[in-house]
Amino acid sequence: MVKHRRARRFRFAVALVLTLASTGCWDRTELEERAYIAAIGIDRVQPSTATANAKDPQPAAAKSQLELIQQYYSEHGAVRLALERMNLRVLQAREGSTELNLRQSQVYASTGPSIAATEDQLHTLISEQIFLGTVRVLILGEAAAREGLPWLLDYLQRSRLVRRQVRLLIAEGDALAVLGTAPGPYGIVGTHLHDLVEQSIHHGRAPDRDLGDISIYVHSKGPGIIVPRITLGEDIMKLAGSAVFKEEMFVGWLGELETRGVLWVLGEINSGPTVVVPSPTRPNDIVTFRLATLQSTVKPELRGDKPTFTVELRIEGDVIETSVLASLTELELIKEIENRVTQAVEGEIFAALARAQSAELQVDVFQFGHAFSKKFPKEWERLQTEWNAHFADATVEVDVTVKVRRTGRRS
Amino acid sequence: MKPTRGEKGSRSQQQAEHTGAPGRQGRLASSLARNLDDLRAILDSYDIVFREFSAGIGSSEVRAAVIYVEGLTETTTLNEQVLKPLMVDARRTPPEGGMTGNRLYEFIKGHVVSVSDVHETDNFDELVLRILSGESAFLIHGQRMAMLLSAKAWEMRGVEEPETESIVRGPRDGFTETLRVNTALLRRRLRDPNLKIRSTQIGRRTKTDVAVAYIQGIVNPTLLDEVKSRLDTLDVDSILESGYIEQLIEDDWASPFPQINSTERPDEVTAGLLSGQVAILTDTSPFVLLAPSTFVSFMSSPEDFYERWHIASFIRLLRYAGVLITLFAPALYIAFTSYNPEMFPGPLLRSAAGAREGVPFPAFVEALIMETAIEVLREAGVRLPGPIGQTIGIVGGLVVGQAAVEAGIVSPLMVIVVAFTAISSFAIPSYSLAIALRMIRFLMMLAAALFELYGVIMAGLILLTHLASLKSFGVNYLAPLAPVRLVDWKDAYIRGPWPLFKRRPTYTHPVDVDRMDDERRDNQLVRRAQRRGRW
Questions:
Q1: A353: exposed, middle or buried (C-beta count within 10 Å: 0-12, 13-18, 19+)?
Q2: Euclidean distance between CA atoms B384 and A6, whole angstroms
Q3: Inter-chain contact A36–B349, Cβ cutoff 8 Å?
Q4: How far is A90 from chain B (nearest CA, A)?
Q5: Would you list which residues of chain B are within 8 Å, Cβ to Cβ, of chain A?
Q6: Is the pLDDT of residue B25 over 80?
Q7: Helix, strand, coil percent content, chain B, rounded in steps of 5
Q8: Quick one: which of B330, B511, B310 has its CA closest to B437?
Q9: Any CB–CB contact under 8 A between A29 and chain B?
Q10: Is B492 exposed, middle or buried (0-12, 13-18, 19+ CB in 10 A)?
């Protein structure tokens, strides 16, 4: 009896194990069965091209729904989603392989009512499963940027594949055009742009923003943020300047040096950027200073009812280029260079500040509000809602200290 | 050790019936001829020598016989110390007065047979057993007693360096197949009268000598009793290797994990005895068992204590990394490749996907093929004679692996994973633990193939649960990691510096806990040394 039961139990266990094999189609997708996307470009376009979808015969009952979608189209325009897909075979090809002559990436684009719906439609063009885990950059067209950030983030934050480190860029014009441009010696636009953005901390002419920064910004209801701008030239793309978002909306552009002016205050510049000042020794001559370290502190104050800010910058760096063989070992000369660099940096900051406070923008891209909220939490409660207006009125003092540490020597 | 339990006695009675000994309750007769007849009836085998002769003491002559197993006895001793004195010398220089019966026997024992280890018996079964163990029996007509001369000598392997547990620094001697040599190796290291070695015989037919060694005053008496009682309950016909004993007395036969450590190294056994373990030595096997054993003890090597503690700790951590790699590397490869590519860092994913381009199998099949191949290679390498084994390893590992990649059957990344897994498993000092982990690795792969990353995590948790529930002689297998005993963590993932080893490990519950002098004096010494700036 016991033996019998044991045998039955054993048979049951075997049957249980065998069921595992009979499931057959596991939901596995092997690595090579996926389409690896390096960059996403999102544009808003006129619905004329997008209505093809809506023209399909629809059941009568859905008619009213169709009208609603048409209405949405006419208000917002259609989404044009462009994906840059990497050709791994070419990327992994060995020396001498014929595949080396093939293109390293291919751009697919389609239009639809929403991002997810368009991604779905793209499966009609791409034979493998679209995989967004490899995306390096997200490029927003200017028109799409005007739709605001929450619309965009919703889909990307729901996705478990899109990483927080994906860099956000705003294209002057169309994102699709950026993806269609040859990126230089390395064939993938996504990788190239990603590296460009990472590099920006060393020149300060564009900020570095990833999706993590953006979602923190949106969820903390920040008053303003700058996002790097990508512009197209003849067969070349340039990362410089920035797009200004006021609360969640795109409101305008900042130029290269204006962007640098903001980044000085934000302290988001590392070694590298250069400042050119007139030479103290000779007229008609210049000296180039290169920043090594930057420390930035924003000190908020309340003068009466008015927020006031003092920005303290500690800059250290070297003189790396002069046009004459002048000895720069004298203390007075060094002091004079320091003064001139101070003036130059202050000038950049004030220029950026003037732009940000102007009636056109009125955006606190310097994150003064953040510093203020930490020091005056109660007042912040009151001023928060209209912060950008208060920022526009705020007095800002800039206190830059420059130290020239090395003047160099020619050998 | 004489059999202590009643059951033993009844077994030897069974033996008596079995051997068909005469109905004298297994006692010797006084007639030599009758004794010899009885012995011949039982020991009628080619390798047993019966030598009858006349021992002459002066004028009196008496029939005597020597019985021994050819090849197990040193015949020179027998010839020089027994036969020659009795047959030649005694006749030339006879003692005064004639002697018969008991007096003659006592005279021979006391004055003629110059062999150090002499044992007497009148028990027929014992006589037979001792002859078969290599002692020489000496019988005289008219005596109901037999003298057993221990002149054992047989061909044996010398003390050599253990091949399965080679180390860089440390003693090179290893146990042999002879129990006496092994006990001597222990005694040479422990000149402590409290080192006790008790022996018993296990195996109805093999009668294998099994010795239990422990240090009285350190070993916990409860543990010792448990080991002894488990050994006593053994009732098998044979013990051919200590592996028999290990598997028959372990706590959980269903687990793939070894629960009793086995080693060929006398220094490891000595260290074990000093930390309160009990050693079980088996004749005919160079592998000595150490009980109780924990997972941590399988992960440590005696060399850990010979090298400086930083290095030893680093190497130990490497071994633990080896365990994780052995268990999880192929499973994670499958899970990442087939289900969760987002777990790869970006650039690695590109390489991995590019490498898999054109591979005809799903990752699981690919991994299964390669892992099976490497296990077959490993097994073949063990079986084949030395130099050929290495050649096969190179041919199999390099040539086949390279060819498989070139042919596009497996991806290069898979080969790396498989090779790294195999190498990692050999970083584990215990062969039995390593082989268990290598087997479980296949289950992990199956879990990954069926249930993705989630399956790997679940399988890992099940494994951990199993390990945590295992016991070795009542000691938790994962001690001191689970349950947590922080005082023993000095000798777990890392090997702490010597000043930490003032107490013996707690998991063996030793009686004498102190390894070093009392703490106060020690602390003073340390402080003074630190003040002076050196230890």
A1: buried
A2: 41
A3: yes
A4: 9
A5: 337-339, 341-342, 346, 349-359, 362-363, 449-450, 452
A6: no
A7: 50, 15, 35
A8: B330
A9: yes
A10: buried
Name every chain A residue with its beta carbon within 8 A of the beta carbon of B362: 28, 30
Do B353 and A88 make contact, defined as CB atoms within 8 angstroms?
yes
Using CB atoms, pick whichever of B342, B362, B449 lies closest to residue A161: B342
Q: Contact at 8 Å (CB) between B505 and B516?
A: no
Please tell me the distance from the alpha carbon of residue A175 to that of residue A39, in angstroms, as a whole number. Answer: 10
Considering only CA atoms, which of B486, B462, B466 is closest in space to residue B476? B466
* Cα within 13 Å of Cα(B320), Cβ side: 13
The alpha carbon of residue A228 is apart from the nearest alpha carbon of chain B, in Å, by 23
The tokens describing B283, both together, are 């004749």
- Using CA coordinates, name the residue in chain B closest to A34: B353
Any CB–CB contact under 8 A between A32 and chain B? Answer: yes
- B339: chain A residues, CB-CB within 8 Å: 27-29
Average pLDDT over residues B457-484: 93
Q: Beta strand A137-140 with A34-45: parallel, antiparallel or unpaired?
A: parallel
pLDDT, tens digit, for every residue of B415-442?
899 989 999 998 999 999 999 999 999 9
Q: What stretch of H or E contains A107?
A: strand A105-112
Q: What is the pLDDT of residue B211?
A: 96
Decide if B305 contacts B491 (C-beta within 8 A). Answer: no
Q: Which tokens go with B185?
A: 């190796």
| pLDDT on residue A56 | 54
pLDDT of the residue at B328: 95
Which residues on adjacent β-strands are paired with residue B198? B212
Query: How high is the pLDDT of residue B525?
Result: 65
**Model confidence pLDDT, tens digit, residues B313-351:** 999 999 999 999 999 999 999 999 998 888 888 778 888
B452/chain A closest Cα distance in angstroms: 8
> Mean pLDDT of all residues in chain A?
85
pLDDT band at A360 (very low <50, low <70, confident <90, very high): confident
**Torsion over CA: A34, A39, A45, A48 (sign):** negative
Under an 8 A CB cutoff, do A30 and B342 touch? no
Distances from the Cα of A239 to the Cα of A196, A228, A230, angstroms: 7, 7, 5
pLDDT classification of B295: cutoffs 50, 70, 90: very high
DSSP A291-315: EEEEEEEEEEEEETTEEEEEEEEEE
CB atoms within 10 A of CB B160: 13
Q: For the segment A257-298, what is each residue's pLDDT rounded down to a tens digit?
A: 999 999 999 999 888 889 998 888 777 888 889 999 999 999
**Disruptive mutation site among B340, B344, B357 for chain A (greatest number of A CBs within 10 Å):** B357
Other residues' Cβ atoms within 10 Å of the Cβ of residue B523: 12
Contact assessment for residue A261 and residue A353, using Cβ atoms and an 8 Å cutoff: yes
Q: What is the DSSP string of B475-492?
A: EETTTTTTTT-GGGGGBT
Give the pLDDT band (50/70/90) at residue A49. Answer: very low
- Give the model's pLDDT for residue B6: 41
Mean per-residue pLDDT, B14-35: 65
Coil/strand/helix, residue A306: strand
pLDDT of residue A209: 92
- Residues B144 and B127: beta-carbon distance below 8 Å: no
**Residue B112, both tokens:** 């003629």
Chain B residues with CB inside 8 Å of A160's CB? Answer: 342
User: pTM here?
Assistant: 0.81
How many Cβ atoms from other residues are within 10 Å of residue A371's Cβ? 17
Average pLDDT over residues B496-522: 82
In this prediction the ipTM stands at 0.77
Q: How many CB pairs lie under 8 A apart between chains A and B?
A: 64
Q: Taking 60 as the threshold, does the pLDDT of residue A205 lie above it? A: yes
Token reading at B404? 């498989």
**What DSSP character marks residue A403?**
E
